[in-house]
């Protein structure tokens, strides 16, 4: 049984064309974001190498921080799954399911940010790192900018949820959800690389 | 309605998509594998390429199946893959070199 609030209506050819353009624009934006993160990850790796070569203090993740970050990685991967399932739901006009998956995505995104806040507080208040030391400069810049992207993603998810609650989306019209999904998966993709480079190859 | 398009979807809409839960399972197992690999005290020049290879495979899975690049128009793949290749080269060179 269909769960849509309104009966789905086909969109015009012009609107479909506009949707394609929006997706195209999103892919261009993501490719530029990819280069920004490549630069940040490269800067982290160089700073780390420089610190080792010059005998400067660096950081080694302990068992607790590795467990915390692994859980955070799992949370972000799960949130991506929620977005995929949400898009699959709206493809068959299950608007309520889409709303549920968007709520779960926002919750998981907030949980990721909570985990990152715990990690930061441990690093700053227990281990005494700051933006001034080489590790702090490289680490907080990279993970902080990624965290900012997650924060924006959570806000975007909530805005998409608000639009979904108005019954705007249907199997004919869900590009807005798809574009949000692209952004969210991109943030997940970047974290996959950060997790390996920052925490596992230390 | 003469010019009304079929239900919104992109090229390959009717192709059967890979089960996202299966992809999630593979990503989770790969993440666990990465953490387990670090427990073996292998030399850096061995462990770093292995970990990076797993990470890039995971990133590829996210792009191909979650971002639907596998089913999308080739132009989206070209737009994303071009800077991605530069990024992979940069990170691999800096991390391994």
From TrEMBL, chain B:
The lineage of its organism: Bacteria, Bacillati, Chloroflexota, Candidatus Thermofontia, Candidatus Thermofonsia Clade 3. Keywords: Cell membrane, Membrane, Transmembrane, Transmembrane helix. InterPro entries: Cyt_c_oxidase_su4_prok. This is Cytochrome C oxidase subunit IV. It comes from Candidatus Thermofonsia Clade 3 bacterium. It is a multi-pass membrane protein. The keyword Secreted does not apply. Its main location: membrane. It holds the Pfam family COX4_pro. One of its GO terms (cellular component) is plasma membrane. It is found in: Cell membrane. It comes from the Bacteria. The chain crosses the membrane at residues 21-40, 46-67, 74-96.
């Amino acid at each position: 049984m269909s769960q849509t609030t309104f009966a789905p209506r086909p969109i015009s050819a012009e609107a479909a064309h506009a949707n394609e353009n929006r997706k195209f624009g999103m892919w261009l934006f993501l490719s530029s974001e990819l280069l920004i993160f490549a630069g940040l990850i490269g800067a982290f790796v160089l700073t780390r190498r420089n610190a080792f070569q010059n005998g400067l203090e660096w950081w080694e993740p302990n068992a607790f921080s590795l467990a915390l970050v692994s859980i955070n990685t799992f949370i972000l991967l799960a949130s991506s799954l929620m977005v995929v399932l949400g898009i699959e739901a709206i493809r068959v006009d299950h608007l309520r399911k889409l709303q549920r998956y968007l709520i779960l995505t926002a919750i998981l995104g907030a949980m990721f940010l909570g985990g990152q806040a715990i990690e930061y507080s441990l690093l700053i208040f227990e281990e005494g790192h700051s933006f001034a030391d080489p590790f702090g400069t490289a680490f907080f810049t990279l993970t902080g900018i990624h965290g900012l992207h997650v924060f924006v993603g959570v806000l975007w998810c909530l805005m998409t949820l608000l639009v979904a609650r108005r019954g705007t989306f249907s199997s004919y019209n869900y590009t807005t959800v798809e574009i949000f999904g692209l952004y969210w998966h991109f943030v997940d993709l970047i974290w996959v690389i950060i997790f390996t480079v920052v925490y596992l190859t230390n | 309605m003469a010019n009304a398009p079929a239900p919104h979807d992109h090229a390959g809409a009717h192709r059967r998509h890979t089960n996202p839960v299966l992809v999630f399972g593979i990503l989770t197992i790969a993440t666990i594998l990465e953490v387990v690999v670090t427990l073996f005290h292998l030399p850096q020049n061995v462990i770093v390429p292995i970990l990076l290879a797993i990470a890039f495979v995971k990133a590829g899975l996210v792009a191909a199946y979650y971002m639907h690049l596998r089913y999308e128009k080739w132009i989206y793949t070209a737009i994303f893959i071009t800077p991605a290749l530069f990024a992979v080269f940069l990170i691999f060179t800096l991390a391994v070199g």
